[in-house]
Structures are given as structure tokens and as C-alpha cells.
Amino acid sequence: MNTIFLHVGPHKTGTTALQKFMLDNQANLFKQNLVYPKRYVQIFGHHKFRDNIVNREITKDDVAFFKETDNNFLLSSEDYISLSKEDFEYFKQCFEGFEIKVIYTWRRASLKLFSIWQEVIKHGGTIDFFQYYHEHLARPGTSQMLSPDLKVGMFSQVFGINNVSVLDYESSVGRDTLINDFLSLLDIKWDDSFAISEQSAESTNKSMTLADVEIVRALNILAKQAGILDGGNIRLAYLKHKDTLVLDSLVELIREHTVQINVGNYFIDVRSEKVMSDKYGAHVYNYQNAVKRKEIQIASSEWFLSSNVQSLLNDILQNLAISDAQ
Fold it and tell me: What is the DSSP pairing of strand 3-7 with strand 72-76?
């Protein structure tokens, strides 16, 4: 029976680096009976296949592709994490007769919320961090970001608990074994011939500085008001022309409005750690207790309120629009 490994992310758990590794090593992986298909690949992951699932457009040709050989397959996309239970049931129904195994990477929630918030801003978001954080903390039991057991539970209901594997992100990163641990879940043995390329800008998802994030967030707000916000277009234009912009006064103002907050050891963190270890511990590949506190720096939204600042930001937005039009 062919096995389809479904790597569902979520975001900010090393998915891009893992996908780049799999793409670079297709030939070596094939020798160990695993296919990382170029079909459906967008950038490095199989993001296009998510649309097929959501739109109920998995065809007979799609299914036949997976039946052509006796190999196992890996489909990987952090976007799969947003699929509903009904979406996964549809996927399972389409691939009846295949063994489907889900790989979910668990990263402690309150430690990654800052990174997720940055990702929201990168893609056109306007919400400030305190509001974003509060929306999740106010209803932790219903937040799938703060309560990973909700997602793992859903995967278990659809595919069966024995077909769900959880990778402990903090444990793997702490031991610098993320790729090796991921390969183990795929029944792949490490081979010294595996290629490990230096990480490029395309294969990593690096965090911006706090000042950059806040400036982009403010520009997103103004661009939205002007009707020119389109996904991450403002962030891309900003990073492209950053060296030509006069930002010193804004950066200093943001620094003056920066505060430190502690995250990582909230009640929801302790609760999630206990539930995951008690309920799903046998299915966590490399579990290591990781309830710890971390200090992060956040800028108060007050930096954005003065008319002088908004005038300066409007000038920057116009310059970006002019630069991109040339």
C-alpha cells in the first residue's frame, strides 16, 4: 500500500527549509522509495494542491499520478494547516486505498505568536501586536494557535491517531536535528550524499527588525486607506527601496516607544504542555518539556499617532509607489 505523508506545517516551524531540502534531494530520496513530486510545487512546497482540496478539484488524473509507482509520497505545505476537517475528509476520500500519515510540527504557541504576527504584517496586516495577542489569549481554549491539541485531535479523528506524528520543534532546533528528525518520520535514513545548500533569501523566512515591522504595518494602514494595499506589496516595495528612504527619525521614535514583555510561561502554555504530553505524548517523536519564559520587545502604537509622523509615512508611501512605477 502506498503511503502519502502529509506535512501540514504549521507556519514558522521550519517548513520552508525542510521543503527546500526535499526539493534539492529528490533523486536521493527516490532511492529510499520517497517521491517529493515537482507536480503542484510552488516555490518549494505543494501549496497549489491546497487549492485543489479546498475547491474539490482533485481529479482522477491526480489520483492516478500517485498510483503510477509503488513509492511513498510527501506533500508539504504550511498552508494545509488552515484546511478544515471536511477538507481533510475529502482528501482522504479521494485517496481511498492509500495510507495517509500526517506530520505536524509543534512549536510552543506564545513563543511563536510574535513571529506569526510579523507574518501577518508582511502579508498586508494592520493589527498591532497587543490586539493580536489579546484576541488569542482572551479565548485560549478555542485558539488553534494556542491549543495545538485542537488540530492534532482533528487529524486523529480523520486519519486515526496512529497515523499522526508530532515533531517537537523546540527539541529539534535545540539539538540542531530538525532535518534529521523530519527524515526519521518519513522512514528515511540519513545519507552523507544529501545536499544541504546554503540558505538563500527564498528558502528562509527571516524576521524583520521591530522597526521595519512597525513601519510596514503603518504603511499598510495608509495603503489600505488609499485603496492600494494588495497582500504583501507594501512590504516588498519597502524592502526593495529601504536603502533609499530616510528612516532615522521613525526608527528612533519606535525605539522610544519600545517596551519589553515576558511570554512563554502563561497558563495556556502550561496547559498546552500538559495536554500534549498526557494525551499525545506517545505520538510526539522527540518530546522535551519546554515551558520557559522569553523576553520580547514590542512597540506601543502611540509612536504612530502624531500628524508629523503620518505626513512622513505618506511621503514614504508616495515614494514607494513612484519608485515601483518607474
Answer: parallel
Span between the terminal Cα atoms of the chain, in Å: 56
Any residues with CB less than 8 A from the CB of 306 and at least 6 apart, and which? none
Q: C-alpha cell of 80?
A: 494545509
Q: Which of 84, 63, 86, 85 is nearest to 75 (CA)?
A: 63
Q: Which three cell numbers stand for residue 9?
A: 506545517
Q: What is the mean pLDDT of residues 78-95?
A: 96
Spell out the SS3 assignment of the chain: CCEEEEECCCCCCCHHHHHHHHHHCHHHHHHCCEECCCCCCECCECHHHHHHHHCCCCCHHHHHHHHCCCCEEEEECHHHHHCCHHHHHHHHHHCCCCEEEEEEEECCHHHHHHHHHHHHHHCCCCCCHHHHHHHHHCCHHHCCCCCHHHHHHHHHHHHCHHHEEEEEHHHHHHHCCHHHHHHHHCCCCCCCCCCCCCCCCCCCCCCCCHHHHHHHHHHHHHHHHHCCCCCCHHHHHHHHHHHHCCCHHHHHHHHHCEEEEEECCCHHHHHHHHHHHHHHHHHECCCCCCCCCEEEEEECHHHHCCHHHHHHHHHHHHHHHHHHHC
Q: Is the pLDDT of residue 204 over 60?
A: no
Grade residue 202 by pLDDT with cuts at 50, 70 and 90.
very low
Name the pTM for this structure: 0.80
pLDDT, tens only, 159-200: 999 999 999 999 999 999 999 999 999 999 999 999 987 654
pLDDT at 293: 75
What span, in angstroms and rounded, lies between the C-alpha atoms of 25 and 10? Answer: 22
**Measured on CA atoms in the order 240, 243, 245, 251, is the torsion positive or negative?**
positive
